[in-house]
Amino acid sequence: MSTHVRLVLHLLLLFIFAVQEVRLVCVDVPSETEATVGGVMKLTCIYCMKREEISAKTKVDWFYNGSASDYRRMLIYQYDHEPQEPEDAEMYWKGRLTWNGSKDLQDISISIVNVSASDSGTYECEVSRFFEFDSFKHTTNKKITIELKVKMQASVDTTALYSKIMMYVLLVFLTFWLLVEMIYCYRKISKSEELAQDTAKKTRRSPNFSIEYSISESLNIIEIHQPKNKLSLFICLTSFQTCMVSFFNLSSKTHL
């Protein structure tokens, strides 16, 4: 008993020291460049910090430069201690921009609400980080440019369409394979039960063994096969049911 207790304690200590703190990983991804009239468009701006344990003051300025034919640089949104609209921002932008960044200020994106056709143009995200150390100060800057095009209707994403088709094909194939596997398991279980019964009958008829030994041996054969057979059938049915549930869930999500 003491050996089992020691083993459990050792495993608990190993688990406690092995588990580490889980942190989100910052990935620099480009922003989407196509929006639809009347929708919500996220202008993605990500500036990952290489050393997250070092704190820094972050300042973000979002500019709209208009189109190539109508260049006009204007400050439309900023982050300085908190997300805010500039006081001198045009009425066109007021109430249409929302902060969509993260708490650690690695994701400093904004979203345009109720996109209109005149929102097409060039957007710039200018980020400044101010680091303060004991002996010196350091500043880093980054600028991300986004060329936004607004369309009346959303274009068909061929990649998503092909992925959806391949997912349906894969689910149909897995369903068919599990159905065949279930039939195979059922036949295998039936044959093993028939073999166990035949073995028990032959053992009873054999004159070389006593009746008590024959009965006990037959029961042992049946007991050996029955749990395995039930477990195999249960695994097959569970796998088939899981596949069918996944298929119907995907179908319902696709039609929504």
From TrEMBL:
Source organism superkingdom: Eukaryota
Signal peptide range in chain numbering: 1-24
Single GO molecular function: sodium channel activity
Membrane topology: Single-pass type I membrane protein
CC annotations in GO: voltage-gated sodium channel complex
Domain Ig-like: 20-145
GO biological process, one term: ventricular cardiac muscle cell action potential
Keywords per UniProt: Cell membrane, Disulfide bond, Glycoprotein, Immunoglobulin domain, Ion channel, Ion transport, Membrane, Signal, Sodium, Sodium channel, Sodium transport, Transmembrane, Transmembrane helix, Transport, Voltage-gated channel
Subcellular location: Cell membrane
Transmembrane residue ranges: 165-186
Family membership: Belongs to the sodium channel auxiliary subunit SCN3B (TC 8.A.17) family.
Subunit structure, interactors included: A voltage-gated sodium (Nav) channel consists of an ion-conducting pore-forming alpha subunit functional on its own that is regulated by one or more beta subunits. Forms homodimers and homotrimers. SCN3B is non-covalently associated with alpha subunits and induces the formation of alpha subunit oligomers, including trimers. Interacts with SCN5A/Nav1.5; regulatory subunit of SCN5A/Nav1.5. Interacts with SCN7A/Nav2.1; probable regulatory subunit of SCN7A/Nav2.1. Interacts with SCN10A; regulatory subunit of SCN10A/Nav1.8.
Name by which UniProt lists this protein: Sodium channel regulatory subunit beta-3
Source species of the chain: Cyprinus carpio (Common carp)
